[in-house]
Amino acid sequence: MLSLYVPGHSVVHRAPAGVKLGLLAALGVGLFLTERPAVVGGALVVALAVGLGAARLPWRALAAQVRPVWLWLAVLFVFHLLVTDLRTGTVAVLRLLALLVAAAVVTATTRVTALVAVVEWLASPLRVFGVRPARIGLVIAMTLRFIPLVAERAARIREAQAARGADRLRWGMAVPLLVQVLRMAATVGEALDARGADDAPARRPRRRPAVAS
Amino acid sequence: MRWRRRPEADAETPAVALGSGIELRDVGHDYGDRTVLADVSLTLTERRVGVIGANGSGKSTFARLLNGLVVPTSGTVLVDGLDTRTQARAVRRRVGFVFQDPDAQIVHPTVAEDLAFGPHNQGVPAEEIERRVEEMLDRYGLAGHRDHPAHLLSGGQKQLLAIAGVLAMRPQRIVFDEPTTLLDLANTRRVARVIEELEQDVVVVTHHLDLLAGFDRVLVVEDGRVAADGAPGETVPWYVARMD
Amino acid sequence: MKSRDLAYVALFAAIVAVLGLIPPVPVPGLPVPITAQTLGVMLAGSVLGAKRGGLALLVFLALVAMGAPLLSGGRGGLSVFAGPTAGYLYSWPIAAFVIGLLTQLFWRRFNLAWALVANMIGGILVIYAIGIPFTSLFGDVPLWASFTGSLTFIPGDLVKAVVASLVAVAVRRAYPVIELPTRRATAS
């Protein structure tokens, strides 16, 4: 599915998602409060130990998430060598690496449903402003449903235009596509009502439903 | 009176509920300055009601009036005595709605999650939701697709999932808005059979006239008015004759 | 929010994701290939308006944070929010919100020119105003270096602003989604 989750049963996998995200956030703030290479380097070693050791993640799972910024880190390092000094450059690169690895570990060991639950929990203070946290889960589910649907309708419109002689991708197809999917979304809105999506506040569930939406 | 009342339905029905069935009193509806329905007064108590008419005749709006998705701009729609204007939520619990395009009705990425959506909204306990999901998966041959992404289903399977998603909410009646328009012949027949076997009372808006063979009553909607109303043996030939 | 608004928000989150699947398009004369994803940011704001457009991008980022590899190039997970260019990501919901706000402001006389103003302020200015300082902060590099580095993307962003504006004006004519409150009621 659409996820970077790596299934497992380690302590790291079983740790509550909220705790993992909290630690990650703390690390993100903490690392910027120090300039000492030993501390920053130590954080990287710990992050790697947790990911590869405790969570038994394959090396590739972590590398895949760090690879996209590899080049950028190299450029950053060279820049610091030229403009500032070796020490500052090393700290800057190690700091980002430690954060990237730690974030990759949390992503790879936490299920999407658990993360949705944390997002809903984080959003619960917004109740004061009339936000219903359960709806966040619903919108996320709908987005996952819409992604293949939008891709499919885009392909169909492209075929229709190709049949009429437009042989390459043109931005003009964006307009009929958008109008079509906006219409569909309006009907989805009706379907949500018909299926009771606005029913929740009328009566509280008798028991907390186990089905995560 | 041909509506079969369920015990749990009685428990929810307010004491003031007098009529049973769906009653439209002087109903009219317009979008801005465009009138789509005018002066519709009738009571639907039959088990099988069909609605036919040309594109743009007002059929779709008519269907949406029956479960409160659309509130009439004039007149009143009562479902078992419940006013769709003031008690829309209670009405929608009684009247399920199946849309023409199942893609617009399936809101969750996987089959089982989508089946659970309606009952979950109604506050049905988790074990009962699970039981209903299993029942629906079984009944409509979707058991092998439980955790599959909904977009990988065929068009016919998607429409069955949409219908099952409504049935999982245990409505007393179901309104179908052109349920077979996007389907091929085999799937049209399959959906027709599914509708035929439903124990619920149904209203079907359709262009497929052979869907209405065993129906009790068929309405013809024309330019926002009910132009004919009666047994399918009378109204369907009348409608067909007008096309020639 | 009505149920329909929830569906619109999910729809545009999905559209931004689908735009990430389009491989970068090399354009003759431009130094770097164009990626389509920020086009989605501009469209979300100029089709849905401020609130729904901003929310659509928040939902999209939430999905990315949860590990869905939806950023162009198949990137995703929490690590993208810690990277040196993460500031550009954080700017997206704000950019969509600003574009939406300007679009609503210009809605009665909305045309290509006003659409361009909205998309260039929200879709280029806002994004760089957040992304550039973020990069310099996280990478410990001076602002000028971070600014110079991002200049190569400006031509592509201008192209996208034009495309988004053309599309937004056409969609407004065919299927307007933004509704202005009648008689100066409280803006939602």
From TrEMBL, chain A:
Annotated compartments: Membrane
GO cellular component, one term: plasma membrane
TM region(s), chain numbering: 12-33, 38-57, 69-86, 98-122, 134-151
InterPro entries named among the record's database cross-references: ABC/ECF_trnsptr_transmembrane (IPR003339)
Membrane-protein topology: Multi-pass membrane protein
Source organism superkingdom: Bacteria
Alphabetical UniProt keywords: Membrane, Transmembrane, Transmembrane helix
UniProt protein name: Energy-coupling factor transporter transmembrane protein EcfT
UniProtKB/TrEMBL annotation, chain B:
ATP-binding recorded as keyword: yes
Any Pfam family hit: ABC_tran
Molecular functions per Gene Ontology: ATP binding; ATP hydrolysis activity; ATPase-coupled transmembrane transporter activity
Domain ABC transporter: 22-243
SUPFAM superfamilies with a match to the protein in the record: P-loop containing nucleoside triphosphate hydrolases
A GO-annotated cellular component: ATP-binding cassette (ABC) transporter complex
Keywords tagged on the record: ATP-binding, Nucleotide-binding, Transport
PROSITE patterns named in the record: ABC_TRANSPORTER_1, ABC_TRANSPORTER_2
Similarity remark: Belongs to the ABC transporter superfamily.
Name used for this protein in its record: ATP-binding cassette domain-containing protein
Organism of origin: Blastococcus saxobsidens
UniProtKB/TrEMBL annotation, chain C:
The UniProt record lists the keyword Transcription: no
GO cellular component: plasma membrane
Pfam families recorded: BioY
Transmembrane segments: 30-48, 55-74, 86-107, 114-138, 158-175
Intracellular or extracellular location(s): Cell membrane
Bilayer topology term: Multi-pass membrane protein
Record protein name field: Biotin transporter
Organism, as annotated: Blastococcus saxobsidens
